[in-house]
Specification:
Number of strands: 17
Number of helices: 10
Largest sheet: 8 strands, antiparallel
Helix content: 25-40%
Radius of gyration: 25 Å
Order of helices and strands: HHEEHHEHHHEEHEEEEEEEEEEHHEE
């Protein structure tokens, strides 16, 4: 009894030490969410990853931040520190060729490949067409046929010369339909390398989902003009890309004019308020959602026959929803 009393403090200390070690052990087994919002391509990318390993969680978030920051520096029109789009458009060198970032050159090579598949619905040299609508929409003006044709005639086409060099013709580049899906693929490579299978990455309308932590991820499809929700989905291990009416828009004579421009016409598309593509490949989803936005539903259904494992949801200008048969399995069922 005297021994117990004498060593009572030691017993209590050991007890609490064991409790602490047990707590630390249990806490180390918890799945934690690591989240980051990073400026990217006129908007933000939201990253959520889940892992038990604190070190890996922090390291992966850091690598993803570097990835998106790097590509953002290449595609921004406001940063002259990188040999990216700003450098191409605003350089004053009197030379026939420009050497650009190798990463941007690789991206532009890939973009040209996809451009050739787009039935003229993507033109990576077509930013001047979007830009003229940007300026006029702010004043609620409609760009005339003459203005449109003038811009189309003056477009400089991107010419890749090899060895990271391009023709110095001040081409004005538009990577919509390519860039968000492309960098999402690179982000997925990083996640796979570190063995992270539970994640959700939203890059301005391109959502890349891994395995869900609890229940499937729930996402909403929004009419970007009225800001109403028109459809609800549940997804897991899949990519969803949605293209809607451009961020700048106005209504005149029952027609919505916006800055999502079909390069083949030089005008805003009027078929749909939104098009969503569901498929495994985020780059394919990004590409198809833009191409299909510029096509009628009938044209779109014919076009996607060339691609396997693709489901589509069209939200047309008259606010009707049309889907491919396989898209129904992603509908959110409420009880």
């Amino acid at each position: 009894m005297k021994f117990i009393k004498k060593n009572y403090g030691i017993f209590i200390g050991v007890f609490f030490l064991l409790c602490f070690c047990f707590y630390i052990s249990k806490d180390a087994q918890k799945v934690r969410m690591y989240e980051k919002n990073i400026p990217f391509h006129r908007s933000y990318v939201n990253i959520q990853i889940y892992t038990k390993d604190i070190k890996i969680g922090k390291e992966v978030i850091e690598k993803l931040e570097k990835l998106y920051t790097h590509y953002n520096s290449l595609i921004t029109r406001k940063d002259n520190k990188a040999k990216g789009i700003f450098y191409i458009e605003n350089n004053t060198k009197k030379v026939k060729q420009l050497e650009i970032s190798s990463d941007l050159y690789t991206l532009l090579e890939l973009a040209q490949t996809w451009e050739e598949k787009s039935a003229e619905k993507i033109n990576i040299s077509s930013f001047p067409l979007q830009d003229i609508w940007n300026h006029n929409i702010e004043k609620e003006n409609i760009v005339t046929e003459e203005e449109t044709q003038k811009e189309k005639n003056n477009i400089s086409l991107l010419k890749l010369l090899g060895n990271n060099k391009i023709l110095n013709n001040h081409v004005s580049i538009n990577l919509d339909g390519i860039i968000n899906g492309y960098v999402s693929l690179k982000a997925q490579d990083i996640l796979n390398k570190y063995g992270i299978s539970t994640y959700l990455i939203n890059t301005d309308g391109v959502i890349l989902s891994g395995k869900s932590y609890d229940k499937k991820y729930k996402i909403v499809l929004e009419d970007t003009f009225s800001h109403d929700y028109y459809h609800f989905l549940q997804i897991e291990n899949i990519a969803v890309s949605t293209k809607g009416i451009g961020e700048k828009a106005f209504l005149q004579n029952e027609t919505i004019y916006h800055n999502r421009i079909d390069p083949s016409t030089g005008k805003p598309s009027s078929y749909h308020r939104g098009v969503s593509v569901i498929t495994q490949d985020p780059l394919l989803a990004d590409f198809l959602s833009l191409v299909l936005f510029h096509m009628s539903i009938e044209e779109g259904k014919k076009y996607i026959k060339a691609y396997q494992g693709v489901e589509v949801i069209w939200y047309s200008s008259d606010k009707k929803i049309t889907s491919t048969k396989g898209a129904f399995k992603y509908n959110l069922v409420t009880h």
